[in-house]
Predict the structure.
Amino acid sequence: MESFRPLLNAFGGVFLIIAIVRILALVSELWRCRSIMKKLQKMGKPMPAHSTLLGHLLAAKTASEELPPGAHSTYILDRIAKKLDGKNGPPAYYFDSYPVSTPMLMVRDPYIANQAISHPWTSAEKPTNLTEWFAPISGKGGINLFTQNGQEWKRDHNLFLPFFNNSNLDAAMPMIIEQMLIFRDIIRKKAGTGEPFRLEPLALLLMNDVIGRVVFNAELGNQTSGSHPLSETMLRQLGLKFGANNVMDNIGQLNPFRVFSIWNNSRILNRHIRAQVAKRVDAFREAKLRHEQSAFNSVLDQALENYYSQPGRKQSDPLDREFMDILCAQLRMFFFAGYDSTASTMVSCCYLIWKHPKVLAELRAEHDQVFGRNVAACPDMIAENPAILNSLPYTLAVIKETLRLFPPANGLRMGCKDLVLKDRDGNEYPTEGCAVQTSHFSVHRNPDCWPRPLEFLPERFLVGPDHELYPEKGAWRIFEYGVRNCTGQAFVLKEVKAFLAIVCREFDFQECYDEVYAGEKIDLTNVDNEKAYLVEHGAAHPRGEFPCRVSLSGYVPSETR
């Protein structure tokens, strides 16, 4: 034992030095963040009461205690704003939650948000500490298309961009419809039982299988054969990441056992992804030998096509290590981004549409007109002619109104010294040292921008500019604007339109919140009295995974024009 003592002392000394360095770095950054806020506070800028030690964490704690259990952080930030003036809150305010996040300017008015995405630097720049949030999801230190900046982002953006051209997306639709028909059959069985169930897990399985096809060109079979190892490992990784939904849980992620679990599972996940890459490399080489050209290229296929088309590369060359590391990180990001928020949107649509019978009737009437009276023929019509989805303006309006009320995320950019934002009254908001976060939830429910903001009115997106419901420029921001807008927005809208076309005429959904949560007494006042208020789990999701019953609608299509 004595012989090991010098070695143990050496290791102890190293760990002590590392701990001291990290503590000093934490204190230094804490001082920097608090100093920024103190300076802004002295300038009279809007913010909650600020503490040198805790920043605005106490304000966040107070706001969270005024909300029902598990309410998404977007409600907390909106609640803080409303408490500042006792009304709807200021158009923007400052918020310091370090060490949870960097100091932020919270933007609640599209007039201000439009200025941020018009700035040549800020519009393209993401905060550097965003990588910490993404690290468990994508690996590689959290570097991916969401977090990259400058030439690195442009390189990887261009690598995957061809996947999103319209002809390739249309070529993907038959595979997507195939997975949606499996989902439809599962819902039919649920209708046969009449028992309550939770819709969101089924929607997540559906999107898991869709993403398997469009990202990896792989049949994952989660809806039919149980969890695929790739899916299972990815979902375990997300569970480790999103098991922390409040400040104390986030601090708990410093637990070395949790850190090890995330690292180890990440390693296993990359191994599964490399196996899929190897399969697609073999398929790529075989297709080239046979001079075959597929109408559809998955995200992975497109990356390989781009890689091997570079000057000096031969099809027999192995993928270099750097490219493989980048590929694993970006494919993990596409997996998460592609399935989580889309599934949430599908579930939110089912909640809101069947809550509003007039909207449902109008939606079914549009589907009758476009797809005809044979409800069973609709999926084949979409698979054979995906462009038919462009003939559904009311369906698109329903989706956009759903996303207005139930936004899955926010917009985030990095401020800079020469960007000073102004509100409608000319008040200035410096952004140096702060991230600029546009709260989609607050902007989308801002009564100064949206007449009757809490009502579900899809016609907002169909009326002309002279109508009172016509949206203000930039007020609908789900996919954001500017150079860093969401590349996959056209694909998401195609998926959700196809989903609604398949389920809306055949099924009736009835929410079961009162039944499932019988005896639970919670105050919904500060979440706009919404039973399905948003909760935190990656993207924002309706509470409780949307408990519901489903039945066959018995709907008889009307005569088409």
